[in-house]
C-alpha cells in the first residue's frame, strides 16, 4: 500500500528526527513565487478547466465578482510575458493579470455565471516531469438561483465542527516580568494578548478544536520554552499573539509575520530583534540556538513548514480585512527571524494593533474589538487547509 506524502506527513515524519535531536530551531523561507503558464480547456460534461502553473506551491484564494473568477495568489508578481492559452468552447472569454500589493490576481472573465467551487472542483498537482505546480479549476455554467443556494450551503458547511480535532497552540506573548510594549495610557501588551488568547481558546474549543495556551496567567516563559511547548503537544498550528509599538504614534493597524532567515524589510527586522530580546530579561533562561543542528531536519520539512505558515498568514490577513480590522500600511504579511516561531509547527505571529497609537490603544482594550479580532482568527483557522 502506498502512503500519500503530504506536507503534513513530512512534518510527522520529521517528528521522529526531532525526538532524537531534541529541540531544533527551524529557519524557513517564504519563497517568492512565479507564474509559469495559464491555459484553459474543455472537459467532459461541458466543464471548463482553468490551469495556472506556478514555480512554487501557490497560497491562493478564490473570489467571484459578477461574471468573473478571480484567483488571488500571494507573494507573486505579474509577468507581462505570459498570456493565457485559450481553448475554444469554454466559459472563459479572456484572462488578465492584476497586481495588488504583493498579490497577483488572475482574473478570468466569464461568458456565463458560475457557482462557488467546492473542493471536488479544485486540484493542486505536484511538479511532474516538465510541469511545475498546477492549480486546476473545473466548473460549469449555472443559474443565479443555484449560486444563491450554493452560497447558503457554504455558510452552513462553514459552521460544522471539524471532523478531526486539530491542535492549536495559542501563545499570548510576553508575561510576568516581561510586560511587552506599554501604551501611553499604561496599557501593557502582556495583558491585552492574554485577554485575547483566553477568548480565542474559548471560541476554538466551542468550534471543536483542541487548544492549549502557552500561558494562561501572568507568567514569564522563554521563547524556546514556548516553541518546545508546541512541539510537546504535537501542535498543528501555532498562533503567537502580540501588540506592536512604533516610534511614530500615527502608525496603527494589524500585521502578520512568518519565519524567515532574512527580514522582509527594516521594520520587520527591528520588530524581530525587539521580540527576541524578551529572553534576555532572564539571563539564566536565555537559550542560544545551535546553528549546526538545523541540518538534522530535511530541507523538505523546512519548505513544508514555510509553505503552510505562509498559507495560514495570508488567510488570516484576508480574514482580518474581511472583518474590517485596519491593516498597517504596507504588506499585511511580512517575514523575519522570530525565535518563538522556530519549531516544526507551522505558525504565525499576529501583531493585533499598535499600543503606541492612542486611539488603537483604547480600541485594543475594549471587549467588542477583542471579540472582533478573535472572530476573524477563528474564521482563518476554520478556512485553513490542515491536510495538504
Give structural notes:
The protein has 388 residues and is of the alpha/beta class. The protein folds into two domains: 35-157, Immunoglobulin-like (Sandwich), CATH 2.60.40.3500; 167-383, 3-Layer(aba) Sandwich (Aminopeptidase), CATH 3.40.630. It is 30% helix and 23% strand. It has eight helices and 14 strands. It has helices spanning 7-21, 144-158, 189-206, 223-232, 266-276, 299-322, 358-365, 367-383; strands at residues 35-43, 47-54, 60-63, 68-74, 92-100, 103-110, 122-125, 133-139, 167-172, 210-213, 237-244, 255-259, 333-336, 347-354. The strands form three sheets. It has a six-stranded mixed sheet, with helices on both faces. A hairpin with a 3-residue loop joins strand 1 and strand 2 (47-54). Helix 3 (189-206) packs across helix 8. The protein starts with 6 loop residues before the first helix and ends in a 5-residue tail after the last helix. Residues 1-5, 13-30, 155-162 and 278-300 have low confidence and may be disordered.
SSE arrangement:
Blueprint: H1 7-21, E1 35-43, E2 47-54, E3 60-63, E4 68-74, E5 92-100, E6 103-110, E7 122-125, E8 133-139, H2 144-158, E9 167-172, H3 189-206, E10 210-213, H4 223-232, E11 237-244, E12 255-259, H5 266-276, H6 299-322, E13 333-336, E14 347-354, H7 358-365, H8 367-383
Parallel strand pairs: 9-10, 9-11, 11-14, 12-13
Antiparallel strand pairs: 1-2, 2-8, 3-4, 4-6, 5-6, 7-8, 12-14
- How is the biggest beta sheet arranged? 6 strands, mixed
Radius of gyration: 22 Å
CATH homologous superfamily identity of the largest domain: Zn-dependent exopeptidases
The overall strand count is 14
Amino acid at each position: 500500500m502506498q502512503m500519500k506524502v503530504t506536507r503534513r506527513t513530512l512534518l510527522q515524519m520529521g517528528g521522529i528526527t526531532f525526538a532524537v535531536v531534541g529541540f531544533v530551531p527551524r529557519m524557513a523561507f517564504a519563497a517568492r513565487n512565479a507564474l509559469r503558464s495559464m491555459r484553459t480547456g474543455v472537459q467532459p460534461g461541458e466543464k471548463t478547466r482553468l490551469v495556472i502553473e506556478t514555480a512554487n506551491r501557490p497560497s491562493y484564494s478564490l473570489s467571484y465578482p459578477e461574471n468573473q473568477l478571480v484567483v488571488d495568489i500571494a507573494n507573486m508578481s505579474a509577468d507581462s510575458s505570459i498570456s493565457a492559452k485559450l481553448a475554444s468552447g469554454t466559459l472563459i472569454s479572456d484572462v488578465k493579470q492584476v497586481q495588488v500589493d504583493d498579490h497577483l490576481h488572475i482574473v478570468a472573465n466569464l461568458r456565463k455565471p458560475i457557482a462557488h467551487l467546492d473542493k471536488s472542483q479544485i486540484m493542486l498537482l505536484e511538479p511532474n516531469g516538465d510541469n511545475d505546480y498546477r492549480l486546476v479549476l473545473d466548473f460549469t455554467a449555472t443559474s443565479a438561483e443555484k449560486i444563491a443556494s450554493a452560497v447558503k450551503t457554504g455558510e452552513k458547511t462553514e459552521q460544522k465542527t471539524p471532523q478531526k480535532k486539530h491542535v492549536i497552540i495559542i501563545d499570548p506573548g510576553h508575561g510576568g516580568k516581561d510586560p511587552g510594549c506599554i501604551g501611553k495610557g499604561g496599557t501593557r501588551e502582556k495583558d491585552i494578548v492574554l485577554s485575547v488568547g483566553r477568548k480565542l481558546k474559548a471560541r476554538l474549543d466551542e468550534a471543536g478544536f483542541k487548544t492549549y495556551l502557552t500561558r494562561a496567567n501572568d507568567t514569564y516563559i522563554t521563547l524556546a520554552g514556548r516553541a518546545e511547548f508546541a512541539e510537546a503537544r504535537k501542535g498543528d498550528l501555532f498562533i503567537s499573539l502580540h501588540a506592536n509599538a512604533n516610534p511614530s504614534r500615527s502608525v496603527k493597524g494589524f500585521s502578520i509575520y512568518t519565519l524567515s532567515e532574512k527580514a522582509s524589510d527594516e521594520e520587520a527586522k527591528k520588530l524581530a530583534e525587539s521580540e527576541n530580546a524578551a529572553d534576555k530579561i532572564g539571563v539564566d533562561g536565555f537559550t542560544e540556538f545551535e546553528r549546526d543542528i538545523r541540518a538534522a531536519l530535511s530541507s523538505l520539512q523546512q519548505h513544508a513548514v514555510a509553505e503552510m505558515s505562509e498559507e495560514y498568514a495570508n488567510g488570516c490577513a484576508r480574514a482580518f480585512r474581511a472583518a474590517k480590522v485596519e491593516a498597517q500600511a504596507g504588506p499585511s504579511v511580512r517575514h523575519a527571524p522570530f525565535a518563538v516561531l522556530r519549531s516544526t509547527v507551522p505558525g504565525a505571529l499576529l501583531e493585533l494593533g499598535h499600543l503606541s497609537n492612542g486611539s488603537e490603544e483604547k480600541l485594543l482594550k475594549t471587549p467588542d474589538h477583542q471579540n472582533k479580532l478573535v472572530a476573524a482568527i477563528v474564521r482563518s483557522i476554520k478556512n485553513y487547509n490542515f491536510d495538504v
